């Protein structure tokens, strides 16, 4: 039995005629008669009594009609809801964003997306890039944003920005008047960096080790503005992306390019390569790829 059997049955019951039901359904009478016989055989009960050119429901048919009405209505509702999803009238997205990324790139994107699809709800989760990767990989998030490259091999991505880390030093720091600074020149400085669940945490430490020293980390934070304020208070130095540095007050902080080596900062949108993506999720990826590409 499938939904088509019940739809044919309901139409015959409504019109009291195989011929009229066939005409209404744009099928042949033998087709609808065969379908009803198949349904009766499967249920083990006669559903219609023939009275001249018309038919009427048997007691078993009346029982089936009550349940079939519910099933067919539910199927119609399901089809309508799926159509809404396909047309992006409804939907829900769980998106993971590192705090420093979300405030810079996504308020405008989310606003534009909401204008196009007002009934698609978006739930944002602010975590470091490593945690975002893990949650997309295990299905807790639909989509995420992180620093590339990703470490989880089940993730797909597209890149939407690439820049470098800048050095933040207090205004009275010995390097404050230079045009740029080498990473090795910071061997004796105290570092203020992002906490361990941020991709930049390990990337900065690894870069320092390759430059010949183990950085002395005195404080870790998940907030870039707090990091910059602590630098301004003279507690240490920090490395932040160029985009974030544009939002930092220069009153007590000097910002300069980091060279030899520079540390890249590439952002990407990530999703699980093997897990089903909803219609809304696929449209979010299409929309953000186009929007950020501009």
UniProtKB/TrEMBL annotation:
InterPro entries: HTH-type_LysR_regulators (IPR050950), LysR_HTH_N (IPR000847), LysR_subst-bd (IPR005119), WH-like_DNA-bd_sf (IPR036388), WH_DNA-bd_sf (IPR036390). Pfam families: HTH_1 (PF00126), LysR_substrate (PF03466). CDD domains: PBP2_CidR (cd08438). The keyword DNA-binding applies. Residues 1-58 form the HTH lysR-type domain. PROSITE patterns: HTH_LYSR. It comes from the Bacteria. Coiled coil: none annotated. Keywords: DNA-binding, Transcription, Transcription regulation. SUPFAM superfamilies: Periplasmic binding protein-like II (SSF53850), Winged helix' DNA-binding domain (SSF46785). NCBIfam families: trans_act_CidR (NF047520). Belongs to the LysR transcriptional regulatory family. This is CidABC operon transcriptional activator CidR. The gene is cidR.
